[in-house]
Every structure is written in structure tokens, then in C-alpha cells.
Amino acid sequence: MNKLDQLKSMTTVVADTGDIEAIKQYLPQDATTNPSLVYKAAQLPQYQSLIEDSVKQAKQLDGSSLENTLDILSVKLGVEILKTVPGLVSTEVDARLSFNTIATVHKARHLIALYEDEGVDRSRILIKIASTWEGIQAAKVLEEEGITCNLTLLFSMAQAIACAQSNITLISPFVGRILDWFKAHEGKDSYASHLDPGVISVSNIYRYFKTYDYSTVVMGASFRNTGEIEALAGCDKLTISPALLEALSEDNQELVQQLDAAQLSDEPKWDDLNEADFRWHMNQDAMATEKLAEGIRNFTIDLVKLENLLTKQYL
Questions:
Q1: Is the pLDDT score of 138 beyond 80?
Q2: In the structure, what pLDDT confidence band is assigned to residue 246 with cuts at 50, 70 and 90?
Q3: Cβ neighbour number for residue 265 with a 10 Å cutoff
Q4: Residues assigned a catalytic role
Q5: Residue 209's domain is classified under what CATH number?
């Protein structure tokens, strides 16, 4: 078996793309999207009819507001993806709401309602929310309503534990972006996979969750190379770009499982985090603070690009 097939035997493989053709090629269990990926998909010729349908539906609802058009487009893309994957799709809340708990809850409910109008059960949707304190509180409310969430832009143990303590369904710790930060700040060009700071972070979170029996799923994300993926083989889920899925599928060497639920953490169990505790831990972690803020900014930039594209061509 190639490494992709071997990985599928020990980890749930998720496609990190909005490109349905790529999803069909690699047959993942789930798929994730974000504003950057939706923006890329919107520029492909095969998605023009999807955009036109979204604009038409928004016009029927409210005279074609840009906000509704974006929501409908994100949902329609998710519906198309769900025709290809047997599992779940993650759809992201507007990154500009990352510090507004109430608005995030309202947006998530709206997205779920749009999915249900399309005949998709909410059990197949993960609402993707940035791992700010406000985002985690919104997700806690949504989970209690039966709306499952994927907490993204996660870079620290404090973010991970706050999510687990709030019974969030899934977290997406960002491996590659952690690596980027350490390369820039430590002046290194590369790290061996087992010394990669992003790999170490996700491994520690995974083992902590298994040791203290948290049900929150750990899904490593944002990979820079296949070595990072191989070093996390055995993690609950890994969401992987088409380019790296292709690289794994072309490699026929043996893949050794690195993580399993029996491995114990040497991290003492944390007390329940309140807002002050969370913010203090984030303040003490320059990497997590900087990468969280940068990630929200970058998703917002691509969201604005998508708005401009829609406005120029369709609205």
C-alpha cells in the first residue's frame, strides 16, 4: 500500500480543500473549508453555476445582500462536497466575528438552517470557529444545541484544553504555522520531523486528551510537508491539502504509526480555565498569540477578496 492508504488505516484522513475534483481523487472521509479555500474555489470555472445559484437565491431572500450570498455560497459548496465524502464537512463562520460570541452563535445557527433547507442533517456539519475565548464560548453554546463545532486557528495547549473542558467536538491545531513561527524566530531552515515544534504541540495535545479521557477529537491541520503528517500518523484525524495527499499516494514506503490512545501524557491535569486564566496563558505564549491574530487577519483578507469578486461579477 502507498502511504496514503496506510495512513487511512490508522487515522481518519480529511481533505483540506474546496476542490471537489481533488476530493473525488483521494477519497477522504471528511473535508474542511475556510475563507481562503472558498475564495480559490470561486475562481474555478466549474463553480460559476454554484455562484450564480447562490446569488439568485440571495436575491429571492432579501434583495441580494452580500452577507447572505456568502453564506449561501459556503453552504452550497459544502452540499456539493457532501455528495462526495461519506462523513463531515467543516464550514467556517466569518472570521470578522471571532471576538463576538453572540454574533458567532447567530451566524452558526443561520448556516445550519441553510444546510437543513438543502436537506442536509446537522450531524454532517462542523461549524468552524476561531479558537478565541469568545469563539470557544460560542461553540460551547452551540454544542449544547446539537450543533457540532470545529475550533480552528489553534496553536496552544491552553486553547486546546479550554475546548476540551467545554466539550467541543473537534479541534484543529495548526502544525505548519507553528513551524513557520519557530523557523522565523529561531533562525532555522528546517527541523527533523520528530523535533518539529508543530508536531510536538499536536502530539502533546493528543496524549493529554487521551490520558484525561476528553472526547474532543484532535485533527492536525496546516501541514508544510509529508514528514509532519507521517510523524502524526495515528492522530484522530488529519486534514491534508491535495498536493500532500498526492505526495503520500506516490510513496510506497512503510508508514509507522506514531500516536495511539494508550500513550500517556506527562502534563499534570489543568484546573478548569476561566477567561482570566485563558488570557493569561495566551499572553505568555507569543507564538500562539501572534499566529491566532495573523490567522484571523489572513482569513479576513481572503473573505474580503471573495466579497469583491462577487460584487464585481455578480452583484
A1: yes
A2: very high
A3: 16
A4: 128
A5: 3.20.20.70
